[in-house]
Amino acid sequence: MKKKFTLEIATPCSENFDKMVPNSKGSFCDSCAKNVIDLSRKTNSEIARFMVEHKNENICARVKTTQLESEFVYNEVSKMNNLKYAAIAASVLLTSSVTAQEKEPVVTEISVEPTHHLVGKIAVNQHVKKEISIIIKGKLLDAKTHRPLDERAYPDLTLTINNEPIPVKVNPKTGGFSIPVTLSKDDKVLIINISGSDYYLSKVIPFDAKSVKKNIFQQDIIIESETINKIYQLGGIRANFVDEKKE
C-alpha cells in the first residue's frame, strides 16, 4: 500500500547547523539539547522510509527548501506479501537454475572487418588564451542601504569567483573581500557565488581586463538581500500524510 505525504517545519529554527557537534545519530544542538537529523543529503526514497518509520517521534531535522515543496511516496508492503514475494523469487531462481543446466552452450562466430588507417602529418590549430593572475577587491553591499548585509540575518558569508575551489570570507563589519584569481584576458564576465550558512546566490558581473591596475581589479558587488535563496530549513519536522480516500 502506498503512503503519500509532504514535509512541514511549522516553526523554523535559526540555529547554525554547521556549528553543531556531529555524532552517530545526527548533530547535537546545545540550544535545545536534541539531535538534529540531516535529511538534506538523503534521497526521496530514504526520506520516505525514515519518516514512515519514525512518524510517531518528535524529530528535529534539516531539510532543503525544495524538499518541503515535494510529495513523498512510500510503498508499504505487508509481512504476508513479503513472504509471498520471497517464495515466488525462490521458485523462479530454482527453475532458472534447472533450465540453464539443460541448455547446451552456444558457440558464436565473430568476424572482424579489417580497419583502414590514414598516415600523415596532423596540423593542430591552437588558440592560446592569455591568462592573468589578479586580485579582485571590493565590498559586498545591500542595494537598499549600501551597507554590509546584516551579520545576524546572513552569518558567515563567503565568496567564490568563477568556481574557484576555496571560498573567501567576507568581512561582516565592512563587507570587504579580497580574492586572488586566474582569468583569461578574453573573459568578459565574472561569476560570483555568495553563500553563508543556509543561503546562496549566484550573480554575474562585467569584467574588463583593461580595468586591472597593478594586478588589482576593484569591484563592489551590490545585491538585493531578498534575492538570496534560502537553501535549508531547520526545526521540528512532521509528515503530513495524504488521505487517498478524499482524493
Mind sketching the topology for me?
Blueprint (H helix, E strand, L loop, with lengths): L1 E7 L12 E3 L2 E4 L4 E5 L5 H10 L5 E6 H4 L2 E5 L3 H24 L28 E12 L15 E4 L6 E2 L6 E9 L4 E8 L2 E8 L9 E3 L2 E3 L5 E2 L1 E10 L6
Parallel strand pairs: 4-5, 7-13, 7-14
Antiparallel strand pairs: 1-6, 1-16, 2-3, 3-4, 5-16, 7-10, 8-9, 8-11, 11-12, 12-15
What would your notes on this structure say?
With 247 residues, the chain is an alpha+beta fold. It has 2 domains: 2-75 and 233-241, no CATH class; 131-230, Carboxypeptidase-like, regulatory domain (Immunoglobulin-like, Sandwich), CATH 2.60.40. The chain has helices spanning 44-53, 65-68, 79-102; strands at residues 2-8, 21-23, 26-29, 34-38, 59-64, 71-75, 131-142, 158-161, 168-169, 176-184, 189-196, 199-206, 216-218, 221-223, 229-230, 232-241. The strands form 3 sheets. Strands 2-3-4-5-16-1-6 form a 7-stranded mixed beta sheet. A hairpin with a 4-residue loop joins strand 3 and strand 4 (34-38).
